[in-house]
Amino acid sequence: MAVAIFASCIFFLKIKKLKIIEKNRLKRSIKENGGQIAFGLNQQCTHVVTEDANALSPRHLKTIQKYELPMVNVDFIWESIKEKKLLQCENYELSQTLPFKTAKTSEEARRLYALSIQDLKKTGFELRKDFPYQAEYLVSEKLQEMLIADAVSSSVLSEEVGRFVELIWTEAVGHLNSLLDRPVTRISLNDVSRAEGILLQAKTTWEERGSLTELSAIMSEFYKVIPHKNVLDDEVSKKLIYIKRDLCQLIRDMLNISEINMSVLNPSSLSKYRALRCRIDALDVKNEEFNSVKHFENLIQVLNIYKVSRTTESMLFERNLGNVQSLFHGSSVCNFVGILSRGLLLPNVAEDYALERTDFGYLGSGIYFSNSVRTSIKYSQPCETDGTRLLLICDVALGNCWKTKQYYYCSSEGPPLCHDSVHGVRRTEKKNSIFEVFDLATERIFSKETTSLRPWLQYVCTFDLSCLDYTLLSHDLLNDISAGLLDRAGNPIPLKDIQIKGRIIDFVAEIVVFQTYENETESPIEAKYVFPLDDTAAVCGFEAFIKGKHIIGEVKEKEKAHQEYREAISRGNGAYLMDQDAPDVFTVSVGNLPPSTKVLIKITYITELSYENGNLCFHLPAAVAPWQQDKALNEITQVSMLSYSICSFSFFFLDARGFSMEILIGDVYLPRMWVEKHPDENSEACMLVFQPEFEVPFDHLSLHGEVIICLDCSNSMAGSAIQQAKEIALHALNSCHLTRKISVLKFGTSKTSLWNYVTFSFFSTATMGDSNLWKVLRYLCLLYPTKSKRNIILISDGHIQNEGMTLQVVKKNAVHTRIFTCGVSPTANRHMLRSLSHYGAGAFEYFDVKSKYNWERKVKSQTTRMLSSQCSSISIEWQTHVTENPKLSFTPSQICALFNHERLLVYGFILNCTEILHKLAARAFIREYEQGMLDESETQHEMKREQLKSNIIELSLKHSIVTQFTSFVAIEKRVCMFIFKPSFPHFFPKVGLNY
């Protein structure tokens, strides 16, 4: 909860220059910190916030003077929030006495100006024709623009500035002379425009898969317009097209700044300086500003410092964003002619061509800055003339920074919502980050209007630079979850005692957890217990024992359960609420836990076991039972065990990751059916277990076939989805080491084959239009393999065009081409992706960002399936006489391909049921509703989902299973106190686990 910094403050806002989104963020920040916003200026206001006193009317100024109200700028708000206290206004006040007033006519303005000059002379001021350099920052922005314009058109150029201009000019011209067959001055701007058009034609021909002869002919036309000394015979590629496009930009820059001197063969340094259209001043070595920037780090030797000012940047600089910092930016010396003449440019060109950029760093494509010299010089290169380098210092309006410790790849269209820039946080001893300690800070901005040029350093670097390293990091998101009983502030509450009982039947298990907590404080608290379970688990029982009362949770519809919980808390009664926040995270809210009181909570859940390395694997996460390892290992809790003969050997271990047990089961590959009969009711539930084992562990046709990774780069993948897809593609590439032939292509409206897999997996962007997957599949299936199988890994959000045509192509070619789909994005069309894998004899995996620790396992599962034989076109005939709800007879209703060592569990139940198999069957029906495919047609699928919603809620309520529509709720009415205190030995004989 935000600290009430502005609790006693009422602000009157008069802000015109801020964008609407920034203005709304300012208002929201004031309210979140306890402040109020007045719609009118009156004596109740405590502060007036404005960026310019000119924005206030005479009536406002009179009110401010009458009630002596402080008039502060926007930084007062942000700095107070940053310091978490209300700051003094003195450092943020604007001048309340204006040095001028608005005149109605120009004649009156001239008269008032003359009178003002006379008044200043009478008080001892002298009229000067020149302006002191040190006083420039004291004048208005309009006057600063005029001073810059006067300096650009000056007829005098200092020796230091002349040498600097000649250096950057020589580097740019020298770079062009090494490539071009004629002087750049003999190329016209019309030639550059024509050359850019030819490159665009080459790009279009490449995307349409034109022949090499056509591409060579187009590039020959380009070389005629822009003659080169050495025309390489390399194969025409998009990278070559991009390099030539960048060359055209440099030529255009040189011609634009040389336009006023086109008739001069060798223009003077003054002419070149004027053509740059910016003011350059060399700082004196005795200047205070020179000494302030000279001693940055010992790894460079600063030779000269030049101060640069540009009129357009002074006018457009968005200082009102706030958080203005002086940061470094590095680039090659030959680029500085263009930077000085037109300013910094966002790298949109490369993104339009979907190509790799050399400035693409950890935070994506954009303009990069850093407060570290060591980081910035990575992007600079020594000049050919004297070996020196140039480093730019800019005023950067960072505004609201989005801070990250991980890679953040996205387009240059904009930062995350409600943010203006992206900040890479450096690594410290306490905080882990991919940004090294010496990087200090890395900033990425998305608008050139947020930068303003300041001094330029000319320096010599004392070491050679090393190439940047790009690696993918894996991170277990469950490690970020604070497990256990927590209060509202997130502080842990001690877990006093815990006991766990369970039973395992074949591939399924039922676990009962008893947990005792104690409120050791002197006041009641509302606490929440968070614990992770695997994504196949379902909670089916919740009870609480407190002060002699036994409270049993009931499953109710979520809105009703939450309403009863809030009402109980408001009445002062005890309340318990259990929800499922994510597929593998459950939470228990314990409301109004009395002081110095113990509470015993009993949670029952069911789960399915995994099968790994020939063993059944049961795992209990450590967060469910946070134990002391030595104590748990030394304590004897069970001296005998009643087991079935199918279990021939078991192995279990306990460590910081939790409790794990591996069971070797005999004849695991024999189909079997378990039937459970309710002891009290005429009800039965069934579980069919089928796990095939093929004689050949690997599919020979797949092992010698080909793997194609299809990366969806359509517009719908923009944002985090494309980054997730690229990470999955990299993992898939690393997992396909047994396959001899691997191809990677990205698709949208068209498709592109990728050769440098790792590089392009980083730099592929979601800018390829629509998802025309059917075209890609039809193209691939025209020449399908005859002696092997083709496996396609499709990484997409499932929003594809022409779904009917796509499925038709998949079905027609399923004999030789299998499709394994990987779903990304929270808005993924899972039905379509399941349909593709179902009819393509493959498998579907959804990659949820909330359970990213499972991604590597899921990718490995997909690549293992590709090398395995499979059973496809599986169907089940389930004969039953149930008439109560024929829609829910068995699940899953649609079965995809079944691969080697992968199990198939089919559930069905009859009439009323409450036991373990009954509950698992109910959970299976609910899971198919949430994740399964109910019909081939997506419209029919959604219609059936809507029709089954009421049945699913009824199933959840009947079998006490928490779903997205329901929650456990238990209400304790506190009327009197009980002396009886429950203990574990009292309850264990009653839980019914001794089978």
TrEMBL record:
Residues 479-607 form the VIT domain. It comes from the Eukaryota. Gene3D superfamilies: 3.90.228.10, BRCT domain (3.40.50.10190), von Willebrand factor, type A domain (3.40.50.410). It holds the Pfam family VIT. One of its GO terms (molecular function) is NAD+ poly-ADP-ribosyltransferase activity. Residues 145-268 form the PARP alpha-helical domain. InterPro entries: BRCT_dom, BRCT_dom_sf, PARP4, Poly(ADP-ribose)pol_cat_dom, Poly(ADP-ribose)pol_reg_dom, Poly(ADP-ribose)pol_reg_dom_sf, VIT, VWF_A. Its main location: nucleus. Keywords: Glycosyltransferase, NAD, Nucleotidyltransferase, Nucleus, Transferase. Residues 267-469 form the PARP catalytic domain. Its EC number is 2.4.2.-. Belongs to the ARTD/PARP family. PANTHER family: PROTEIN MONO-ADP-RIBOSYLTRANSFERASE PARP4 (PTHR46530:SF1). This is Poly [ADP-ribose] polymerase.
